[in-house]
Design a protein that fits this description.
Length: 741
């Protein structure tokens, strides 16, 4: 038994044992197993005030709220705001057969936006934030922190003491919440299902990152045909491809700031579409206001039956970008998004659709290009230019979201290691992932060249959007039952209204599978396969180390062995384990036969929270009493950013000396601090394993294929751990070993 230290607190913890855990360790392990899986490995963020930045934004004064409300127009609403460019042509691909159908469709659009965008996202889902951060991962992190659903046993009781880890929960407990929690924790199938569902959500967001630029830019550029009717569809396609390539090329400069800089352009866009919509409503047919009566939806389905159901796949396009309201919450706060949604977004977009439908009541033949045909001639060029800029900004938000979600997945151990470049020291969450940027660009160009028109791309887009909606609702219901402990009647109402509407949307979009709908599903299956293979190998590697960790007696023998030479300096031995010493250590000692006088086992650990305050990041413990051998668990949240290794070394050294000052007696303290100071003067040496994972003899052919070929093939193409952790090559020593899993 030995001490773990954070600040002024220490917790007794069983750490080392035989390969089979002792009863005491099993008891502690059970105590510690509290879900921790979703996170982002943005290492070495040492600014103490960043941990509470999101919480501060959530409690901002009204002046700040108005400022954030203006800024979020440029970041969050691009996709939702530009949807009038392509929605109505997607609903009426074969033209308008009955003028009354326009009223039915308009009623569908109005109530879809009110129910899904406004009620679900703006007023319900935003409340399910994780310390001010949103998105599918935030919902998953809440579930992980409340139930033991993690598949890797690296949880510790000390994690709950992190200030940002604590949940503000209702005091009451319900039988339903307890039953659900027990079901989640006791069923391996459910744990895998939650992980698999999260992977699907990631893949669909990536699908949005491909399809949003395609459909937005293609729709906006298509408006040039109003001024140049002779321009062919191929010419529009190639112009769009050039814009898309340029869009992806500028990502390396950190164009998340585009949202902040060009918020005025989006404000201008919303003003234009609202004004033109109001103008068309007054000029052509004010009678379309009757569509606020939902009975027109019923009549529309009675008249068109199956065709009405199929057309819902086009209606869903008016909701694209709704998930961004939640996903981008971390940049703003709930009040700012609610304020700007109610004051700018929803009124402007509804006026745009009302105006288009009013125009189509008198010009049904123009439905294939309703947006540009309905623009008054003097407004055409200004609106065209603003539409191009708005489409680019809309694309930007989804591309940035793709980078962020990939970073989160990599920290979760569900995506191969990639380079994450932090593009801004000023704004949180601005990252650039070169490999993903290249893949998204190639996919965007391929989709644009392959489909050429927005109709087919719209079919693909609808499936990606509805999958994300349904996954968010599934996680939200779990949060309602288990965490919020919401009244069962309210949960049933949510499921029978919003839940059923989203399932109806999904069924309609899936009907268009052969007409382009297969694209996001094909893409999702590829991404999910990569994620699952990587996660499977990652877990097998961790479990091998856990099951073969070395015993205390073995460590004692190694330390006391006179043949082992003790060298100067401070050695940092990296390991995945937070409980025990990995078998790689004995392999290293047997070949090198040398140990540093001060040795620290470093475990980089991600917690299911957005940020870990810098002063709570390091968790120290002494591995063996009387020896300068320590364990240091370095904890990060999925929004923590990476700093340079030198700063990390300085903070680690200071925290180590603080720990020794509190853990040792007066006489030992001075001696040990002097030895540590000497070791620090000699410098750090990083010891890291380079392990090959192979399927053990007797494994099934599926396991051999997955581990020996697919997982190891992925490893050869990804960045190595030392690159991810920014470890200096001159100070690095790698140890090779084969794990038979």
């Amino acid at each position: 038994m030995h001490h773990f230290h954070r600040g002024k607190r220490s917790v007794l913890m069983a750490e080392l044992g035989e390969e089979r855990s002792s009863p005491e360790e099993q008891q502690v392990q059970e105590q510690y197993e509290h879900g921790t899986s979703l996170s982002k490995q943005r290492l070495f963020d040492l600014e103490a005030d960043e941990g509470s930045a999101n919480a501060d934004r959530q409690k901002a004064d009204w002046g700040t709220i108005w400022k954030l409300a203006f800024q979020c127009i440029g970041v969050v609403y691009g996709d939702l705001g530009t949807s009038p460019l392509y929605v109505l042509p997607g609903i009426f691909p074969d033209g308008i057969k009955n003028e009354e159908d326009i009223l039915g469709v308009l009623s569908l659009i109005i109530y879809s936006i009110i129910v899904i965008t406004l009620i679900k996202y703006v007023f319900i889902v935003l409340a399910a934030n994780d310390n001010g951060d949103g998105g599918t991962f935030a919902l998953y992190s809440l579930i992980c922190r409340h139930a033991k659903v993690n598949l890797i046993p690296n949880q510790q009781a000390e994690d709950r003491e992190v200030s940002t880890y604590k949940l503000d929960l209702p005091k009451r407990s319900t039988r339903m919440a307890s039953a659900l929690k027990y079901s989640l924790e006791s069923s391996l199938i459910i744990k895998y299902s939650l992980l698999f569902t999260t992977m699907i959500g990631v893949s669909m967001v990536l699908g949005d990152g491909i399809l949003t630029p395609c459909i937005s830019v293609l729709s906006a550029v298509g408006g040039i045909r109003e001024a140049a009717p002779s321009l062919s569809q191929d010419a529009i396609m190639w112009i769009s491809v050039v814009i898309l390539i340029l869009l992806f090329q500028v990502q390396r400069f950190g164009t998340d700031k585009v949202g902040y800089t060009f918020a005025p352009i989006l404000v201008l866009w919303f003003a234009f579409i609202a004004f033109i919509g109001l103008f068309n409503f007054i000029k052509y047919d004010p009678g379309v206001i009757k569509a606020v009566n939902p009975w027109y939806i019923v009549k529309y389905f009675q008249r068109n039956k199956k065709k009405a159901w199929i057309s819902i796949g086009g209606v869903i396009l008016c909701l694209t970008g709704s998930e961004a309201l939640f996903a981008d919450l971390g940049h703003f706060n709930i009040r700012s998004i609610q304020l700007s949604s109610c004051a700018v977004l929803v009124p402007s977009v509804l006026l745009a659709y009302i105006g288009q439908c009013s125009y189509l009541r008198k010009n049904t033949e123009d439905v294939t290009d309703a947006f540009y045909k309905s623009i008054p001639k003097p407004m055409y060029w200004p609106q065209f230019v603003v539409a191009i800029l708005a489409a680019i900004i809309a694309s930007q938000s989804l591309i940035s979201a793709s980078f962020s979600i990939i970073q989160q997945s990599a920290a979760l151990g569900c995506f191969p290691r990639i380079q994450v470049v932090h593009t801004s020291a000023e704004h949180e969450g601005q990252v650039y992932v070169p490999e993903i940027n290249t893949l998204l660009m190639l996919a965007c160009v391929g989709v644009t060249l392959g489909f050429k028109n927005t109709l087919t791309i719209g079919n693909a887009y609808g499936i990606a959007v509805t999958f994300v909606f349904v996954i968010t609702s599934m996680f939200l219901v779990l949060v309602m039952v288990m965490i919020w402990k919401t009244n069962i009647i309210l949960i049933i109402i949510y499921v029978l209204t919003i839940g059923l509407i989203e399932v109806l949307f999904l069924s309609s979009t899936l009907y268009k599978f052969v007409d382009g709908g297969y694209i996001p599903l094909l893409f999702a299956s590829t991404v999910v396969s990569i994620m699952f293979i990587w996660n499977y190998g990652y877990r097998k590697k961790y479990m091998y180390e856990l099951e073969n960790k070395i015993a205390m007696k073995t460590l004692t023998d190694i330390v006391s062995d006179e043949r082992i030479h003790r060298v100067e300096g401070l050695g940092l031995f990296y390991t995945h384990l937070v409980h025990g010493i990995p078998p790689l250590f004995t392999h290293y000692v047997s070949h090198v036969q040398a140990l540093h006088k001060v040795l620290v086992f470093i475990s980089i650990k991600s917690l299911p929270i957005s940020k870990v305050p810098a002063e709570e990041r390091f968790l120290f413990g002494r591995v063996k009493p009387g020896e300068l051998i320590f364990r240091c668990i370095v904890r990060y949240g999925y929004k923590d950013s990476r700093k340079d290794q030198k700063t990390f070394e300085e903070l680690l050294a200071n925290q180590l000396k603080d720990f020794i000052g509190e853990d040792s007696g007066a006489e030992d303290r001075q001696r040990e601090l002097a030895l540590v100071d000497n070791a620090l003067r000699d410098g750090f040496v990083y010891l890291m394993g380079e392990c090959e994972v192979m399927a053990a003899n007797g494994s099934t052919w599926v396991k051999k294929l997955t581990v020996d070929y697919l997982y190891n093939w992925l490893i050869r193409f990804v960045r190595q751990p030392d690159e991810v952790f920014l470890i200096p090559r001159k100070q690095l020593l790698k140890v090779g070993m084969t794990y038979d899993v």
